[in-house]
Amino acid sequence: MQRHIDPTAPSNYSPLSQSQRRVRANLSQPGYKGEWSGQVQPALVASFVFLFCLEACLWVRNLRLKRRLPGPFAWPVVGNAMQLGQMPHITFAKLAKKYGNVYQIRLGCSDIVVLNGDKAIHQALIQHSREFAGRPNFVSFQMISGGRSVTFTNYSKQWKVHRKIAQSSLRAFSSANSQTKKAFEQHYYSRGHGTGAVRSVYENFKNLNEEFFSFVKDKVVQHRESFNPDVTRDMSDAIINVIEHGKDKVLEKEFVEATVTDLVGAGQDTMSTAMQWIILLLVKHPDIQAKLHELIDKVVGQDRLPSTEDRSNLAYLDAFIYETMRFTSFVPVTIPHSTTSDVTIEGLHIPKDTVVFINQWSVNHDPLKWKDPHIFDPSRFLDENGALNKDVTNGVMIFSSGKRRCIGDQIAKVQVFLFTAILLAPV
Fold it and tell me: Residue ranges of the domains in the chain?
């Protein structure tokens, strides 16, 4: 479409609307900042003033209620989120040096109490285990397993029953169950697994993650259809038996899928992360890798794969695994806790319904508990006779503690032991 130009206008003339001419005239005036700028700047200033006043009011309110704990200054809206960085557990430990092992941060509009160090965390999770057994009422927690997760639901009578059922089911197939150990080991013999076992495990984890929920549901349906109360084939049967066929039916049948999802999901995540760190540390410390190869070759030989029966003679391998858990702290911060009542830790008052972060990394790197905590040294877990020192291994915190301690910690340790031993086996 052609533009019509007034032939009487100067050569440098272009037609402008009335509003455009007004803007051009305003721009030519000295000190003009524009209508938009004049409108936005006061609004921004007013917003910041309001947010700072709101922050000050919240701070004064907390101070009057004696709820304000030591901690860094929190910015309006974002709180301390921008200060945490990519490794919050390291930031938490650094803040503890300045504010003490019990301090408060803010994420968004929520106050969070962070616990660091062996002493404060032991006091909270062991001496006051009930007060710290709650879970925050996060929307994301309610979405997991249909709101029936034993890991993410809040502390209640129903939760205690649910946890007891899940724990008893796992105990039947833990490291104390020799039949389960043999079945687990036969899986590798039957499929011809050798040093390629870890590769297969990672592939299984990947596939399981993609079809996780449908996988669990299908398995539970299969177990229901072939269920025999006189024969407990595996953990799913044990859970179905207690929840659906027990004398006291306190839980709905939907809790079966939720419980299996919790146990399988937690094991999947822990195992994959642990094995990644184990492989990395074996590569980084070839001297330790060579020592483990020599030990397994001596104890097991070259004509079979390692089994759990060899574990008592492979103390250095267990020491390596414990040092991997301590040194890496691959679960550096636990799932958030929530206080079920007012409680005092190290002389500081923590109100009911406070969200609490437990910094496990700080326990595993506490210089008051570990000599040279930043040095990787498996021998710290061995006594003078070369046996595993149980008192020292119990000091590693990777599965939380107290009423929220991971119920699958023992079977997880057995699995990590077998995978690592098979990985290093000369077969």
Answer: 140-424
